């Protein structure tokens, strides 16, 4: 983590108006991330935003919003299963919908079946979070 702190401080010194967004599954305090602000040499106070799980309805709506053609070609129950397979995580669902944009309509049926059979393994993420 010390190396990351050094890189961030260097980036901020080169581009003072740079805004950084770090995504982590742990609190920044747990990671002991320390960056020094350039102006006034004050410690930056990070803002933390929690990416909570969506409920089933929100997840299905997010799939529909991100890629409407998907919803016209599958049942709502299938969309709910896909959302569950992606841990109701808004980031994973958006990434999945983004992948759908790369397929044409002829590939849509195969892609839907592939998505239905795919399940995100969050075990490693949970283990990493517990071990710090």
Describe the structure in your own words.
By secondary structure, this protein is mostly helical. It has two domains: 2-41, no CATH class; 56-125, no CATH class. It is 55% helix and 0% strand. It contains eight helices and no strands. It has helices at residues 2-14, 28-31, 56-66, 68-72, 76-85, 90-100, 108-117, 123-131. Helix 3 crosses helix 5 (76-85) and helix 3 (56-66) packs parallel to helix 6. 8% of the residues are buried. The model is unreliable at 35-43 and 124-132 (pLDDT under 50).
List keywords for this structure.
elongated, 2 domains, 55% helix, disordered C terminus, 132 residues, mainly alpha
Q: Helix and strand layout, with pairings?
A:
Layout: H1 2-14, H2 28-31, H3 56-66, H4 68-72, H5 76-85, H6 90-100, H7 108-117, H8 123-131
Sum this structure up briefly.
Helix content is 55%, strand content 0%. It has helices at residues 2-14, 28-31, 56-66, 68-72, 76-85, 90-100, 108-117, 123-131. Mean pLDDT is 66; it is low at 35-43 and 124-132.
For the biggest sheet, the summary is: none
Low confidence ranges: 35-43, 124-132
Quantity of strands, as a count: 0
Shape: elongated
Q: Helix proportion of residues, in percent?
A: 55-70%
Provide the domain count: 2
Strand content: under 5%
Average residue pLDDT: 66
Classification by helices and strands: mainly alpha
- SSE succession: HHHHHHHH
């Amino acid at each position: 983590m010390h190396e990351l702190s050094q890189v961030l401080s260097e980036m901020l010194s080169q581009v003072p108006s740079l805004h950084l967004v770090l995504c982590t599954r742990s609190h920044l305090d747990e990671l002991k991330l320390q960056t020094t602000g350039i102006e006034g040499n004050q410690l930056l106070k990070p803002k933390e935003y929690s990416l909570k799980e969506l409920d089933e309805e929100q997840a299905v709506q997010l799939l529909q919003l991100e890629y409407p053609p998907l919803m016209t070609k599958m049942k709502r129950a299938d969309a709910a299963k896909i959302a569950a397979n992606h841990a109701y995580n808004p980031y994973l669902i958006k990434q999945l919908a983004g992948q759908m944009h790369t397929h044409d309509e002829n590939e849509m049926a195969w892609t839907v079946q592939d998505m239905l059979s795919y399940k995100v393994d969050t075990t490693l993420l949970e283990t990493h979070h517990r071990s710090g």
